[in-house]
Amino acid sequence: ISAMEVTAGKFGPEKLLIIFLYAGLLLPGVQCLLYPRESESREMKDLNGMWDFRIDSSASRREGLDRKWFSSKLSHTGPVMSMPVPSSYNDITVDKSIRDFVGWAWYDREFFVSADWQNKRIMMRFDSAHYFSMVWINGQELVSHNGGHLPFEAEVNKLVNFNEVNYVTIAINNTLTPTTLPPGTIQYKTDTKRYPPGYFVQNLQMDFFNYAGIHRSVRLYTTPKSYLSDVTITTNFSGTEGLVNYALKVNGTQSPSATYRVVVIDKAGKEYGPAVKPSDIIHIQNVHLWWPYTMNSEDPAYMYTLKITVTTADGTDVYRQPFGVRTVKTTNSTFLINNKAFYCHGAAKHEDSDIRGKGLDFPLIARDFVMMKWLGINCFRTSHYPYAEEILDQADQQGIVVIDESPGVGIKFPDNMGNISVAHHMEVMGEMYARDKNRPAVVMWSVANEPASSLPEADHYFKSVIGHIRQLDPTRPVTFVSGGGGWNTDRAAQYVDVLCINHYYGWYSDTGVTGVIQRQLTEDLTNWNKRFNKPVIITEYGADTIAGLHRVPSFIFTEEYQVDFMREYHAVFDKLRTQFFVGEMVWNFADFMTIEQITRVVGNKKGLLNRQREPKMAAHFIRDRYLSLANGLDPASCNKNGWKWLP
């Protein structure tokens, strides 16, 4: 049975997606391990730009599949519009039905493939599309992928025409079900006196907008027929000597018939090695370690390059993998980078901005890192999904630590923790590991945000998921982020290395009452540490703040209240930093969009910056604190009625 035959039934969007998941009707794609890079043996062709686009707004949401819109140009099926790639489609138009659309959205475009590529392996890669994707080339099935935020690719050689026009079609379904990550539900409104036939709503279990579309780059790239398919690098050091352990695969295996030449290259161009085996250790004398920029201002974020040359009977493949030499360890009270205590002063983020939604945008990435450095941020969490590889590139290069989080947000109910869910979650963690394993900035995996970890089902679920990523990667700590309640009933924290906890005392509870924050927060964090004997990071705390709204004395939603609120939290952080507390992360770096609801005024407003990345009063307050911490100064001055202004 083919994926298309499934659509012959009478299935709504939720049931259709579940059928694909349960039946395993996903065409086998090539697991993305290596980021596409040009080299002496590899070429790339960018497919970004304006694509034709239309939504399938039929009542069943299956008209496009039934009528096989993929079998010809999308413009032949009905009216299309131009849609930028990469971007979310939701905020591009002025049509509310497109902004809030749930179901299949269709894209296509033409492209050419040079005859010069005929004797090469040609791959088409989508860096991210949300959430369930089906791709065709010239009307023929190419690949399907379940899940957003991570790349997928497949070989196109047998489907493309050389020196002739080709077209690629992708259908993307943003429906969230109990077994997707993040999960959600579809609710059908059956009272036809109040709703039209077939009317349904998508219920979200996360507090951010369900942006959809081709969010990151699309490209063609080539490799030789025999090609390097995987590089795994782990590092250590002894004194001034760096140890670079590498393992290579060619065409998916450690090919004994291939010839290898592997060298480490430093910034000055000096080579270390060569090694000639598919796995070995290369020694670096007088090694430069990778440090967060706040731990070593003179030589932070030092990046080396592992240059790999693989020769087989089919030719030679060359690939360059950036990496840094660093170690990560935890004790019951410390987080160590290169055997020195690291204190995280950071923020949680979102991939979110005006117009483009979650679409990749290089000026925005540059601005975000400028503002993170201005604020003194030395770490961020990829809340609540893996961010673009280009963002993590900047973290590697600029020395900002990353807690790499999966899309496991909103795991609230038992039907989110069944066998289908745990298998998919483990699959996603495997894809995350394969993509990000060689990044020095990534120091910890987070498998979920605020799950219902006190449910009986949570024990097996998180033991399985955490055990899976720990087996894949024994070199990094693993965590999930707790919603803060239930330290005495939690069933999953026993499996993590670091306790990451979100708290909103003075906001969601005892709203506007800052006087109880220190008492409540101290008791809670101390109890978490006493029960589990592990270091603690506050991964979220914050208060919604409308930029430009002021009142004295402070009142909720004013800029003054955001500062007063934070000052109470900081007093607790400073007291516990000498014990077991290893990090603080504001929620959020910048304002971001949510669904329409009466508790949100055009989005979540807890940002230090507004959505346009301009600072609120709290940004200056946090900047003084974080720069004081980075420079070894007493941040307590920021907890008084005023604060100093650092240059």
UniProtKB/TrEMBL annotation:
An example GO CC term for this entry is: extracellular space
Q: Does the keyword Iron-sulfur apply?
A: no
* E.C. number(s) listed in UniProt: 3.2.1.31
Which reactions appear under catalytic activity for this entry? a beta-D-glucuronoside + H2O = D-glucuronate + an alcohol
Keywords tagged on the record: Glycosidase, Hydrolase, Lysosome
PANTHER family per the UniProt record, alphabetical:
BETA-GLUCURONIDASE
| Protein name from the UniProt record | Beta-glucuronidase
Organism annotation: Owenia fusiformis (Polychaete worm)
Q: What is the lineage of its organism?
A: Eukaryota, Metazoa, Spiralia, Lophotrochozoa, Annelida
